[in-house]
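Quick one before lunch.
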Amino acid sequence: MDGTANRVDPGVGFCTGCGGASCAGCGRPFDPPRFCSTCGRRLTVAVTPGGYRARCRDHGELCGS
Amino acid sequence: MVPLLSFLSAPGGHYRNGMPGDATATPIRTTVTLSAPNRGRRQAEPDRPDIDSSTARNRLSAAQAALLDEHRLLTAEELAGLAALPDDWVTSLAALAHQVRLARCGPGVEVEGILSAKTGGCPEDCHFCSQSSQFDTPVKATPFLDAGEVLQAAEETKAAGATEFCIVLAVRGPDERTMQRILELVPLIHEQTGLNVAVSAGLLTEDQARRFAQGGVHRYNHNLETSRSFFPNVVTTHSWDDRRDTCRLVRNHGMELCCGALIGMGESDEQRIELLVQLQELDPTEVPMNFLNPRPGTPLGDEHPVAAWEAIRWIALFRLGLPGVILRYAGGREVTLRELQSMGMTSGINALIVGNYLTTLGRSADEDLQMLSDLRMPVGALTGVL
Ligand SMILES: [Zn+2]
Ligand SMILES: [Zn+2]
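Model of the zinc ion complex:
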């Protein structure tokens, strides 16, 4: 894990760490995404030993390790 | 340090990228958030008095004699004397702790995977926890995972070289439906993967402890987290005594007790020693050592992580206080120890959680297994009969 689970294109979409539209990306290393980058809604996240699945009600699933 | 930090925390993650001598480096828009959230933000440490080197050496040799020759536990007073040693003596503390670990437990390391099978929505108010429904945190409550998902996670754990798999639920205690689901899962996982199955489902009644023990739960996790005197500062919805009572039930019904600590919530050195003595009295098989990873939205969200060197000091002290336990690296080790994670393995740790945690991610299992191989520490199951 290199902490790149939390990504945001500045000015495009929402921060996956806090869901903010104007946040440049506050997600911390070793945190899975918690908010949808498309709509900013809280994601349903299942963390498993080998990865995680994050799901937005409207924008589907995102997986990672 | 300062320029590096200000570069790393520059908002937006923009930087210029070019080859040396390239006069027209193109601005690159990267998607990676550059930050070093813990660098330079560490918990304040107690002022430790200067201690002359002969006093320090005497304390260490008295502890060595007690643990390796007299085969007795250290007292609170002896532990406090070791905890007060200046930073320069942490490597000596660690070396003694490693000797004690090898003498009492051997070189083996137990690897475990954990799974949050029911996340968030917990009615309790543990101030460090992002799964409490009393705090506004980014963690969204999710229902009990289905059996297929739990089995899949157990397989991931096995693939990472683990011998132990712990199913964790964010509940005050298990209701009847939860009891039944766990009791169905435990034999299923054990038969399918061969892993020992541990459970962490909060406070238990006598009857629930008996049923888990009869149902094949190998080890039950219930953390004291902190000392009795500090506990009311971080949890108000149940008491430290409630937790201790569940720990006793676990042991009384023949399950192995896994009873952990969370270091870095604002407790004093004296309170950490108090916890060590309370753990000595409970005599658990395993003690997972967690370090506070401050969670956004929780009352402890603005705390700083424990300093890495301080974490090594306390790993060593936990081994010296609890010489025969399985002392496991648990949550917060990556953000607390960073490059010092292998040093923890030679300071008293003899078990680790591999892969991800309950709501946060861990470093890769491959990195941990490589570290153990480099340290010449074989991976295998450990038991309470050491
Ligand atoms: Zn943000
Ligand atoms: Zn969405």
